[in-house]
């Protein structure tokens, strides 16, 4: 748990549009720690899972140039610990959480030490689930839910090939 939030943090960021994202990402060791709005949590990020949605928009030149504010930090799926909970939240400082960081639609912002997260996209990690496993649930879990739930009825069986 972090008792005092620093002024700066480390964050993987990119500032240019040319070349593949993995060659453009640079570690900024003096990035400003984000200040949460009353409706947001401040989370110390411990683990991040990367998905195609984290790098594909950054690799599309027109999207990256016009729709992604620089410097940009990718990463949507995260797991970490609450530093400062949102106003009225039942989550407590030091509590392990996971979810989706959404600082912008095309650059989630989780690939850094601290991130602001919305109450609707941040939940407590259930007992028995590791923080590393929890960070993989966000985008994949939402995709699975949106794909299966509208089509299934109670009692039906699902075959998952290669899960």
Number of helices: 5
Number of domains: 1
Q: What is the architecture at the second tier of CATH? A: Alpha-Beta Complex
Contiguous low-pLDDT stretches (5 residues minimum) are none
Distance between the termini: 34 Å
How much strand? 25-35%
What is the name of the CATH class? Alpha Beta
Shape: globular
Helix vs. strand class = alpha+beta
**What fold name goes in the CATH topology slot?**
Quinone Oxidoreductase, Chain A, domain 1
Could you please describe the fold and organization of this structure?
Helix content is 21%, strand content 27%. The chain has helices at 21-24, 52-59, 61-67, 131-134, 138-148, and strands spanning 8-13, 26-32, 40-49, 77-84, 96-100, 114-118, 122-124. The longest helix has 11 residues, at 138-148. It has one domain (8-151): Quinone Oxidoreductase, Chain A, domain 1 (Alpha-Beta Complex). It has 163 residues and is an alpha+beta fold. The model has no long low-confidence stretch (mean pLDDT 90). The strands form two sheets. A five-stranded antiparallel β-sheet has the order 6-3-4-5-7. It has a two-stranded antiparallel sheet with strand order 1-2.
Give the SSE map.
Elements: E1 8-13, H1 21-24, E2 26-32, E3 40-49, H2 52-59, H3 61-67, E4 77-84, E5 96-100, E6 114-118, E7 122-124, H4 131-134, H5 138-148
Antiparallel strand pairs: 1-2, 3-4, 3-6, 4-5, 5-7
Task: Based on the model shown, name its key terms.
single chain; Quinone Oxidoreductase, Chain A, domain 1; five-stranded antiparallel beta sheet; 5 helices; 7 strands
In short, what is this structure?
With 163 residues, the chain is of the alpha+beta class. It contains 5 helices and 7 strands.
């Amino acid at each position: 748990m972090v008792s005092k939030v620093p002024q700066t943090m480390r964050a993987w960021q990119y500032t240019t549009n040319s070349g593949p994202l993995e060659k453009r990402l640079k570690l900024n060791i003096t990035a400003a720690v984000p200040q949460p709005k009353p409706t947001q949590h401040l989370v110390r990020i411990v683990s991040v899972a990367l998905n195609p949605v984290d790098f594909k928009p950054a690799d599309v030149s027109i999207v990256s140039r016009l729709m992604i504010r620089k410097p940009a930090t990718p990463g949507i799926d995260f797991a970490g610990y609450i530093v400062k909970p949102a106003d009225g939240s039942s989550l407590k400082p030091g509590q392990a959480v996971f979810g989706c960081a959404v600082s912008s639609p095309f650059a989630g912002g989780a690939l850094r030490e601290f991130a602001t997260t919305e109450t609707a996209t941040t939940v407590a990690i259930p007992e028995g689930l590791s923080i590393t496993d929890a960070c993989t649930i966000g985008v994949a879990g939402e995709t699975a839910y949106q794909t299966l739930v509208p089509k299934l009825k109670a009692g039906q069986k699902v075959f998952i090939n290669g899960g």
